[in-house]
Design a protein that fits this description.
The structure is a single chain. With 374 residues, the protein is an alpha/beta fold. The protein folds into 2 domains: 213 residues, TIM Barrel, CATH 3.20.20; 89 residues, Lyase, Ornithine Decarboxylase, Chain A, domain 1, CATH 2.40.37. Helix content is 29%, strand content 23%. The chain contains 11 helices and 19 strands. Strands 11-14-17-16-15-18-10-1-19 form a 9-stranded mixed beta sheet, with no helix packed on it. The chain has a 4-stranded parallel beta sheet with strand order 4-3-2-9. Strands 5-6-7-8 form a 4-stranded parallel beta sheet. Helix 1 crosses helix 3 and helix 10 crosses helix 11. The protein is elongated, with a radius of gyration of 24 Å. 42% of the residues are buried. The structure holds pyridoxal-5'-phosphate. The site of pyridoxal-5'-phosphate (PLP) has 12 residues, from helix 9 and strand 9.
Length: 374
């Protein structure tokens, strides 16, 4: 998808906010704990390479991505720090992981067996992190027998360098710790069955770290918090307040491309879902669902100049309309998403309006919106 650099719409990313969030988290780490910055999905929509560089300068000592290609992107940008791919890769891609020095997760003996002959033939070593499924139900070893068999296999096969062992929590963002504690118990049980001793045993995502969950972790896989967003599923719960200051980094702006007056009986947008009852001033903003500004945003208020104005009519693929209190000049600035977490158009407010989470809103902003770095 081509980036629209000749139109007035952009995602602004405040790299200083990213750095401040990383630095604040660094002061919050347990003794000896390291911070690995999670920059999957193009850095949660913020731009993977730029975020990774900023995070590294602020103290991140490694990175997590979801795909091999995302790891390759960082390597091609000159990043030499450790990178962990978080998703299972097809066995036939193991050589690619070796070539780019990317560590990958392993959750079955079968996978190790499929990859081993090729590694041996090429006399290469693959960095792996043993994935333990302690209750997320996604990837990893979940049965004693499978762990013991894989452990025995790894002892026979130095082609695998066991750099890490990890699990992922399903409810670290919740104020009910019952399931979290269950996962910790499962994790410790399965971890202790392994005799191989990895360099990093890690369990902490942002929520696990920020809400001071009592579990040790050699690394914090710091994702959403780095972007200045609170992962809490219950943001009003006092114990789910982040223990550090988080500053959102992302803003989405545009401007009015067209302004006109309409009269009673005149409709706006597909389906004519808005019909004027009297004279109205309508502004057009050149951003639409193809940019990730979804149709569900109809009715939400964006900031036009200094005024919050409702989106009227359906959001189109490339444009949407707002109802203005009076005539505004074409070119008036429009702020769709504010980086002020208390603003009525914060990323969190947009996500709440759509009935989803801020992670999803940020990731869905498409490449058609250029990313500008302040
Ligand atoms: C995405 C992801 C993270 C980061 O989670 P945040 O909630 O953004 O901190 C950490 N670990 C794994 C395995 C992930 O998939």
């Amino acid at each position: 998808m081509i980036s629209g650099i000749h139109r007035p719409a952009a995602v602004h990313v405040d790299l200083e906010a990213i750095q401040q969030n990383v630095k604040n988290e660094m002061t919050h780490l347990q003794p000896g704990q390291k911070l690995w910055a999670v920059v999957k999905a193009n850095g949660y929509g913020h731009g993977a390479v730029q975020v990774a560089r900023a995070a590294q300068a602020a103290g991140a000592s490694g990175f997590c991505v979801a795909l091999l290609d995302e790891g390759i992107e960082l390597r091609r940008a000159g990043i030499t720090a450790p990178i962990l791919v978080l998703g299972i890769i097809p066995p036939e891609q193991a050589a690619t992981a070796v070539a780019f020095d990317l560590a990958i997760p392993v959750g079955s003996l079968d996978w190790l067996q499929q990859v081993q002959p090729e590694l041996q033939a090429a006399q290469s070593r693959l960095k792996i992190h043993l994935a333990i499924d302690s209750g997320m139900g996604r990837i990893g070893f979940s049965e004693d027998k499978a762990v013991l068999a894989a452990d025995a296999f790894l002892q026979q096969h130095p082609e695998f360098e066991v750099e890490g062992l990890f699990t992922h929590f399903a409810t670290a963002d919740s104020d009910d710790l019952t399931y979290f504690d269950y996962q910790v118990t499962r994790f410790k049980h399965l971890r202790d069955l392994f005799t191989v001793k990895p360099k990093y045993v890690h369990v902490a995502n942002t929520a696990t770290s920020l809400f001071n969950r009592r579990v040790s972790s050699d690394l914090v896989r710091f994702g959403i918090g780095m972007y200045g967003l609170n992962p809490s599923s219950a943001p009003h719960s006092p114990e789910l307040q982040p223990k550090i200051t988080l500053k959102p980094a992302l803003r989405l702006t545009s401007e009015l491309s067209f302004v006109k007056q309409i009269h009673a009986g005149y409709g706006v947008g597909y389906g004519a879902t808005h019909v004027a009852k009297q004279d109205e001033w309508i502004g057009t903003v050149p951003v639409g669902y193809a940019d990730g500004w979804q149709r569900g945003m109809q009715g939400f208020k964006v900031k036009v100049g200094e005024t919050y104005c409702p989106i009227v009519g359906r959001v189109c693929m490339d444009q949407f309309m707002v109802k203005l209190p009076k005539q505004f000049a074409a070119g008036t600035k429009v702020e769709l998403i504010s980086s002020d977490p208390t603003a009525p158009n914060s990323l969190k407010a947009v996500a709440d309006y759509l009935g989803t989470i801020h992670y999803e809103v940020a990731c869905l902003l498409t490449d058609r919106l250029p990313r500008l770095y302040d």
